[in-house]
Amino acid sequence: MSIDTSLNAAAAITEADIFDAHIGGKLTVQSKMPLATKRDLSIAYTPGVAQVSRAIAADPAMHATHTWASRLVVVVSDGTAVLGLGDIGAAASLPVMEGKSALFKEFGGLDSIPLVLNTTNVDEIIETLVRLRPSFGAVNLEDISAPRCFELEERLIEALDCPVMHDDQHGTAVVVLASLLNAAKVAGKELGQMRAVISGAGAAGIAIAEILINVGLGDVVLVDSKGIIHRDRDDLNAIKAKYAAITNKDGLIGGIREALDGADVVVGVSSSKFVEEDLAKMNENAIIFALSNPDPEVMPDVARKYAAVVATGRSDFPNQINNVLAFPGIFRGALDAGARRITAEMKVAAAHAIAELAQDKLSAEYIVPSPLDPRVMPAVSAAVGKAAQGQ
């Protein structure tokens, strides 16, 4: 599936175009083997297939080489945090998961199927995937609400012997880091001297904080719907409390206005808006990533008044921070390397690989390559595979 990211093409799409294209879904299964003769059938199915099944029963390692399972990514959701739609349920989430599977095939060269589950119980989701483990090689968790998503991913990583990643967390974080590495160069700033504000402390916000801390950013301040996350707040869940202890070094209190005063970077991953007067309090040559879709926290024309570099999640503005830059190559690299887990080192390696691809044309309006750039997946996959081999 190719994606036309031009504004004119998007503007020309009608509601009828969208619904007609989704009739019958977006995915199909096609045999790799010819099935036109009796000989074909004898090889692909009975009696030939019985020999392969017997061989796998005798040597389980052949399951990886003689089925598609080891290269199959399942896109798993319970439909509780779908795009900007919220908790719409498993059935309504399926078109989104079909689309994600199509992206895996187009941009990662990996077969993928969606699995939407009629349960929000973490134990039941884990049990389901453990029982299905012989059928797939990796798990992409998608659109699962916080804070359940943190527990689910952590426990699933321990329960399964294959790569597991919640893309809403880590795909976003990887591309944000890649973008920030280059934005810092354009703005003339050093990572270790920068203070970043993250507006939103859900799945994406927490993962962004984690990866920025891992690469040595000077300080990170998380802001949720009730204000700055700090050590003295008594209304934090376990995840937020964990990050209250390792962020906000200066003990800032208040809301987004206080957080932005003297900040170098702001990353928006919530529906909250950025006010001009607050952005004006940021340090010179600030960096503003307004990633909410379809309406950014602040529009680029306003953000540019106060920032050296501006990025959004939209394709009709420069510097689109899009997860498709990361997840296909991350999973491809992990599977190619035979990795059991997707580690922090692999995610950072992916970010550096993405950032490197923009070096040839680096500017305030080009800090990351296009999602359609054919160099992206091979570069990310190679970097992830190399990092996996070093574990």
Explain the layout of strands and helices.
Elements: H1 7-11, H2 15-22, H3 38-44, H4 48-58, H5 62-66, E1 72-77, H6 90-108, E2 111-116, H7 122-132, E3 138-141, H8 148-159, E4 164-166, H9 167-187, E5 195-199, H10 203-214, E6 219-224, E7 227-228, H11 238-244, H12 256-260, E8 265-268, H13 276-279, E9 286-290, H14 300-303, E10 307-312, H15 327-336, H16 344-356, H17 376-389
Parallel strand pairs: 1-2, 1-3, 3-4, 5-6, 5-8, 8-9, 9-10
Antiparallel strand pairs: 6-7
Helix pairs in contact: 6-15, 7-8, 9-10, 9-16, 15-17, 16-17
Low-confidence stretches: 1-9
Number of strands: 10
Q: How big a fraction of the residues is strand?
A: 5-15%
Overall shape: globular
What is the name of the CATH topology of the largest domain?
Rossmann fold
Count helical runs. Answer: 17
What is the CATH superfamily label of the largest domain? NAD(P)-binding Rossmann-like Domain
- Kindly provide the radius of gyration, computed on alpha-carbon positions and rounded to a whole number of angstroms: 22 Å
Classification by helices and strands: alpha/beta
Let me know the average pLDDT: 94
So what's the CATH class of the largest domain?
A: Alpha Beta
Number of domains: 2
Which CATH architecture of the largest domain is right? Answer: 3-Layer(aba) Sandwich
Strand order of the largest sheet: 7-6-5-8-9-10
Q: What does the largest sheet look like?
A: 6 strands, mixed
Task: Compute the separation of the termini in Å.
Answer: 34 Å
